[in-house]
Amino acid sequence: MKLFRSTAAAVFAAGAAITIAAPAFAADEMWIEDNMPAAIEKAKAEGKDILIDFTGSDWCGWCIKLKDEVFTQSEFKQAVPDDFVLVMLDFPARKPQTDEVKAHNKEWQEKFEIRGYPTIVLTDASGEEYARTGYREGGPTPYIEHLNELREGKVKRDEALAAAENASGVDKAKHLDAAMSIEGIVVPNREEKMEMIIALDADNAAGLKEKYEQQLRELKMQNAMSEVETLARSGDVDAALAKLDELEAEYKPTGDAYQNLVGMRVSLLINSGNTDGAEKAIAEAMTKPGLTAEQRQMIAVNRINIVFPTRDNAKIREVALEVIEIAPDTDLAKQIKNFVDGLPTEDQG
Question: Are the beta carbons of 206 and 173 closer than 8 angstroms?
Fold first, then answer.
C-alpha cells in the first residue's frame, strides 16, 4: 500500500443524487449519515453550507485521526454546526451497509471525483462544491479557522463574480481572475471562464491571456488523465505510460500539473515492479526548472514508496529524512516526520 500519493485536484460540483427513503443520522445526532438529499434539504431550510466527510471509518487511519482530534471535540461541535450541515459518506471495510447506501455513496464519490480518504468537501446549500480539504494537524481550533477562511474565500469569489457580471473588456477579465485566484476555492465552469478571460485580454495587455492559456492547457490535460487511469485499471501499464508521455508532449505541464503527472507515472512504474524506472523518472523530474521546493518534495516522496517494501527501516529512514530536507516546513514534511518517528529502531527489531 502506498504511504503517500499525489493526485490531480477535482473541482467539479455535484448534481442530484439518488434518494434514500429515510434520513439516517450518526450516533451523536450532529451528522447526517450516508444521505446527501437529506443534508441538502436541511441546508436549504437552515441557510447553511454543507460539510461532507468522505471517510473509511473503520480502516482509514487519517480518517480516524481527523474524527478523534477534530470532529469529536467539543469546540468543533459547538462552533461548526452554526455554519454547516454535517454529513458523513462512509466507505467502510467491515461495517455493514445496505446496497442502497452503497449505491448512494458511490454516486456522490463519483460526482465529486473522490480519490482518497479522508476528503472533506464544502458545498453551498444546493450541493455545489466551493472547496475541499482533508486531515490537518493541530486539533479543532486551527481546523475551525481553516474552514472559516474557506467560507470567506467563497464570499470573496462570489463578490468578484458579481463584479464581473457588471463589467466589460479587460476589467471583466480582471474580476474573473480575482475570483479564480482565491487559494483553495472552486469556481464553477472554470474552463468556460478561462476561455472568456483569454478572449477579453486578447493582446495580453493585462498578462492574463498568457496565464490562462497555460492553465487551460493544464486543465484539459487533467481531464485527459482519466484515460490513463482507465488503462491502468485494465492492467495495460505500457499503454498508460505511453499516454502519459503523449499528454506531457502535448500540454507541456508545469507546476502542480507536472507534479501530478510524474506522480502517476512513478506509481505505475512502482506497481508494475519497475523500481529502476521509477527511480529514473523521479531523478529526471527533480531537475525540471520552475518547480517549487514543495512540488519537488511531492515528487521525491515516491522514493519512500520504492524502498518501503524492503522493510529495511534504516534505508527507509534515510530516504525519508532526505525527502523532509527538501522542504522541512511543509505539511507533508510533518507527516513524513511522524512516519519516521514511528519506525522501529534496530534495537526494537
Answer: yes
**Exposure b/e, 169-192, CB count within 10 A at least 16 = b:** ebebbbbbbbbbebeebbbeebee
Look-up: residue for cell 498578462? Answer: 207
For residue range 241-294, list pLDDT tens digits in order.
Answer: 999 999 999 988 888 889 999 999 999 999 999 999 999 999 999 999 999 999
Number of domains into which the chain is organized: 3
The residue type of 226 is S
- What is the pTM for the complete model shown? 0.70
pLDDT digit string, tens, across residues 145-155: 999 999 999 99
Rounded Cα distance between 280 and 284, Å, is 6
β-pairing, 119-123 vs 129-133, is: antiparallel
28 pLDDT tier (thresholds 50, 70, 90): low
Same domain, 232 and 335: yes
Boundary (domain end) residue, out of 87, 108, 135: 135
Verify cis geometry, omega within 30 degrees of 0, for the bond prior to 253: no
Is the same domain home to 237 and 332?
A: yes
- Contact call for residues 297 and 326 (beta carbons, < 8 A): yes
Q: What one-letter code names the amino acid at 309?
A: P
Residues 6+ apart with CB under 8 A from 49: 43, 83, 84, 85, 122, 123, 124, 125, 130, 151, 154
Q: What range does the domain containing 307 cover?
A: 224-341
- pLDDT at residue 10 tops 50: no
Domain-ending residue, one of 185, 215, 245:
215
Spatial distance between the Cα atoms of 2 and 307, rounded to a whole number of angstroms: 11
